[in-house]
Amino acid sequence: MQNLNLDAYWMPFTANREFRKSPRIFTRAEGAYFYTDDGRKVFDGLSGLWCTGAGHNRPEIAAAVHDQLRTLDYAPAFQYGHPAVFELAERVGRLMPEGLDRVFFTNSGSEAADTSLKIARAYWRLKGRAEKTRLIGRDKGYHGVNFGGMHVGGIAPNRMLFGDGPTTDHIPHTLLPQNAFSRGMPPHGIELANALEAVIARHDASTIAAVIVEPFSGSAGVIVPPPGYLQRLREICIRHDILLIFDEVISGLGRSGAKTGAEAFGVIPDMINVAKQLTNGAIPLGAVAVRTDIFETFMAVSSPDYLLEFPHGYTYSGHPVACAAAHAALDILEKDGLIQRVHEMAPYFEDAVHSLKGEPHVTDIRNFGFAAGLTLAHHPGEPARRPWEVAMRCYQRGFYVRYGGDTIQLGLPFITERQEIDALIDALRASLRFD
Ligand code: PXG
Ligand code: PLP
Predict the structure, then answer these.
(1) Could you give phi then psi for residue 365, rounded to 5 degrees?
(2) Which of 125, 142, 240, 386 could form a disulfide with 205 if both were Cys (CB 3.0 to 4.6 A apart)?
(3) Where are the domains of the chain?
(4) CATH homologous superfamily of 16-54+337-432
(5) Which of 52, 105, 138, 142 has most ligand 1 atoms within 8 Å of its beta carbon, as the pocket-test mutant?
(6) Which 3 state secondary structure label does DSSP give 96?
(7) Could you tell me if 262 and 268 are in contact, meaning their C-beta atoms sit under 8 angstroms apart?
(8) Does ligand 1 lie within 6 Å of residue 250's CB atom?
(9) Is the dihedral of CA 179, 426, 250, 269 positive or negative?
């Protein structure tokens, strides 16, 4: 775009130097497509950043946001309320597994992650077990970029510039060579859940507040758990009085072909974090759904009832405009049957993405619902180079896919048609065969 000065804006999670050499600017979007400043139409192969499953620029969301802005643009989040936020809390609770029906709102997945970790620590303190503070994550896990989520996350490059944080430890990931090219849930690795027992033995359960995992790891390149793995984490946490948090910022609200990953994998945690798809990406919003009795523990404190029970919250927690967008986005998911659609189309996507097995550089392909990850063989000494090259070639062909680490990630819009899946896979194939 001519006359656009790129100097001032420090781009997030972006190679700023590279971007300035070859800017990629979207000026408009509709359905499953972006339109660029140079007049090209680009298929949105990651639903934005895993957040616009219902497709872009849905008029229902725009209308709801507009109406809300003209009615109640903002209400103080602390000590005052507005109808949409109470209705949305109830609605989010209904989408969650049985019992996770008390909902705290944030503005992002990162804030949801840190909120859930603070709830866990505070819960144990209220239970008289103040020493339960350690947070356990999983290698390759991603829980956003705030201090709690970053440290309990398992992606080393995201941590190493930033020094110390809360006390954490990590269980191993389940990305095993013998699981390469598994379709959906891979056969091997349930025993890796037992590593949680070893971590507990190392620190003692009396020092551990919570375990946080993504039902399937998204950012790390779609790492799907083997059957029984999450069940075993659940059992171990119950046995040792440790809270289990599912971070469903990617896996929740349709991406897994179910309301939640918890539902798809048949395991009920103590808290679930969602964000992204909650407003179809239109307005920032995140949420933490907690078990009723966790909430009631906070309500049972002995202090006078005019004092607050949980000193935590954001200026924009439950922002009226974000809530309006969320109601409209959830209406669309229901009305258009999009979660069921993902469930029904997932096998077609699975076949398509696995047809890339045998193409140059492809060392693994993983998928679940409308999410997939490909691992690509390294250039010597440059693990992140090939995915970037492949993604840029896709972009030139009119397909946006995400690259990160040694992986390419796909997160289809829930509205994707079969021929669009075919076209996306063809573009990837051609981009892989390039050299
Ligand atoms: N938890 C999980 C499981 C996530 O996937 C966050 C927390 C943080 O959410 P916010 O809204 O603060 O970004 C995420 C976000 C990718 C990609 O390409 C993944 C995320 C964000 C951007 C890109 O894998 N995950
Ligand atoms: N920093 C300062 C100086 C503030 O006054 C506030 C909120 O009042 C914050 C940070 C937190 O902002 P938010 O509530 O939007 O997360």
Answers:
(1) -135, 130
(2) 240
(3) 16-54+337-432, 63-335
(4) Aspartate Aminotransferase, domain 1 (3.90.1150.10)
(5) 142
(6) coil
(7) yes
(8) yes
(9) negative
